[in-house]
Write a structure and sequence with these properties.
Blueprint lengths: L2 H17 L17 H14 L8 H14 L2 H4 L9 H26 L4 H22 L5 H28 L13 H29 L16 H18 L3 H28 L2 H16 L10 E3 L11 E3 L11 H19 L2 H16 L13
Helix pairs in contact: 2-13, 3-5, 3-6, 5-6, 5-8, 6-7, 6-8, 6-13, 7-8, 8-10, 8-11, 9-10, 10-12
Length: 385
């Protein structure tokens, strides 16, 4: 039997078993409610019940998640060293430095907590990313990027857990599938590539987090800032300021649509300047080929990476959330045009969903859970010594 076909059957089996109950949701099928202040408090109470220890998450582990959340939610500290006499570029660099320092703090704590395990520490940094997006979304709600970013980051986490299960199966059964033109096998490639992906999303939260926090200082046209700010980010801030003006005029739908245009531009910025250098690495290129192969062989129904699930866990709540599929033909994650198409589709779909009260409620409920590390993807990560 062809070894690559064997791998496809393995991936398909993992995915189909988990997704067998999942279906595309009708937009009117979710919770029918408006998210009032009282409902927000009810949601917090509901989430609080889920932060108690379980058979999967111990009391010690849950307490550690709480420590990460405290660090991620200290937004005022992110402005340390930012002064009014600084240029916008200097503020941007200081904000990036502060977020990176916070991530380094989490990494140091995780290495101690997990006895030096790089794999578990990497997953802890993903938890920090999710909690940081949640904190930014609540503290800077006028910027939309983080609203979808938290779900995208959680799906990367889900892909890592899935890939780890595949690797564990291959190792347990002593199956080694060599890759063409490399000394690595599929298991090694998945292990190394997913760790690299999680590092990439940390780079993104540092950069986009700084841009989100910088927004409050942007009070003029930035066309002259091209020496340090990318054209895409400049366009993003232009749309963002138009969105905020629409909000001041009471034009809510225009505000949301302009927010979305801004988020798309910031997304292009992140894909081009932060993530593309990673996707250019041969290791991620190999993983991208595997992902594309699975997507093509299943006509876009299954893939390890690329989908965005609006919810906390697409395997435990498939009919409650909404799964944003990869647009047909945009299956090559190495190709920046394809990744931008995926991002644009994600932002536009999210914008459509949030305008409906039932989905608005579900979105906020899901973001709260991700911000507390509740119901997210768990599993034994790869590379455990």
């Amino acid at each position: 039997m062809n070894k690559y076909f064997l791998l496809f059957i393995l991936v398909f089996t993992f995915l189909s078993c988990k997704k067998e109950k999942q279906q595309e949701c009708d937009l009117s099928s979710a919770l029918n409610a408006n998210l009032t202040e009282a409902q927000q408090q009810e949601l917090l109470k509901e989430v609080a019940k889920k932060t108690t220890p379980t058979t999967e998450i111990s009391a010690e582990e849950r307490a550690f998640f709480g420590d990460i959340r405290v660090i991620a939610n200290d937004i005022p500290r992110l402005y340390n060293g930012v002064t009014n006499d600084m240029t916008l570029e200097e503020k941007y660099e200081q904000l990036k430095h502060n977020i990176r320092s916070r991530a380094n703090e989490v990494e140091a704590k995780a290495l101690v907590h997990y006895n030096g395990s790089v794999a578990y520490t990497t997953m802890a940094k993903n938890s920090f990313v999710l909690m940081t997006y949640d904190a930014l979304q609540r503290n800077v709600p006028e910027m939309m990027w983080t609203n979808l970013g938290i779900f995208a980051a959680n799906e990367v986490r889900g892909g890592v857990v899935l890939a780890s299960q595949i690797v564990n199966y291959l190792e347990k059964n002593n199956i080694k599938i060599p890759l063409k033109d490399t000394t690595q096998n599929i298991g090694q490639m998945l292990t190394d590539a997913t760790v690299l992906l999680l590092e990439g999303q940390l780079n993104v939260v540092v950069d986009i987090g700084a841009l989100v926090l910088l927004n409050k200082y942007v009070d003029r046209d930035l066309d002259s800032e091209s020496a340090w700010l990318t054209p895409e980010a400049i366009k993003g801030f232009k749309f963002q300021k138009q969105a905020e003006q629409a909000l001041r005029c009471g034009q809510k739908e225009a505000y949301q649509d302009l927010q979305t245009l801004a988020a798309i531009q910031f997304g292009i910025h992140e894909q081009t300047y932060i993530l593309q250098p990673l996707w250019d690495k041969p290791l991620l290129g190999l993983m991208g080929q595997l992902n594309e192969m699975v997507l093509k062989m299943t006509n876009g129904q299954y893939g390890i990476f690329g989908e965005i699930f609006i919810g906390a866990n697409k395997y435990t709540e498939p009919q409650k959330g909404y799964n944003i599929k990869i647009p047909k033909g945009s299956y090559n994650l190495v190709n920046i045009v394809h990744r931008v198409d995926i991002a644009m589709n994600g932002f536009n779909t999210y914008n459509r969903l949030r305008k409906q009260k039932d989905w608005a409620y579900w979105i906020d409920y899901s973001q709260i859970r991700l911000g507390y590390g509740v119901d997210v993807y768990y599993g034994t990560p790869m590379g455990m010594e």
